[in-house]
Amino acid sequence: MSPTGDTADADLVAGLLREVRDFPKPGIRFWDLTTVLADARGLAATTRLLAGTLAGDTADVVIGIEARGFLLGAAVAQALGLGIVPVRKQGKLPAVAASRSYDLEYGSATLELPTGVLAPGARALLVDDVLATGGTAAAACGLVEECGATVTSLAVVLELPALQGRARLGDRPLHAVLQR
Ligand code: AMP
Fold first, then answer.
1. Which residues, 6+ apart, have CB-to-CB distance to 93 below 8 Å?
2. What is the pLDDT of residues 134-178, one digit of tens each?
3. Sequence spans of domains, the chain
4. How much is the pTM?
5. Domain 58-179 has CATH 3.40.50.2020
6. What amino acid positions are annotated as catalytic residues?
7. What's the 70 CA to ligand 1 centre distance in angstroms?
């Protein structure tokens, strides 16, 4: 019997995912989603899977984390009938509501949330491509919460469980389409 529904979609996405060894530093296994997103069926399957995991949540807005979270978050927001707010890297926004620095699997970074687009009390769904150490997602949650909004859940295409990123998210629900 051939796989159906979510299993078929997950198999399709897994088959399109590209693993790049030693990028951006020796020893890092980089999971490249450009090969998934460039494929019409891959993009549709990824959107269905992410939106499906979040569909049970009552939410007001999707938050997409720069940069691949913008592509995925916008697709998910469209599927769920919601708008999208970008969490951007430092220095890109003309007006910053909140700012947070954090450690990455391979470096450090600062994320910022724009002013005037996230209403206090808003319920947000956070979308990104990969959860590695969880620093990025935890910082994004912190930004949202600093603005008086709530993260109802997070969804990523790929979770790297060995890096224990889930533990940095506290009791916020995390949905992962695939694990590696
Ligand atoms: P982290 O904060 O460690 O969870 O890292 C997550 C962010 O960094 C995501 O936005 C990913 O795009 C990127 N990232 C970290 N590690 C990897 C990896 N091994 N492969 C692909 N992207 C990664």
1. 112, 114
2. 999 999 999 999 999 999 999 999 999 999 999 999 999 999 999
3. 58-179
4. 0.96
5. yes
6. 68, 105
7. 14
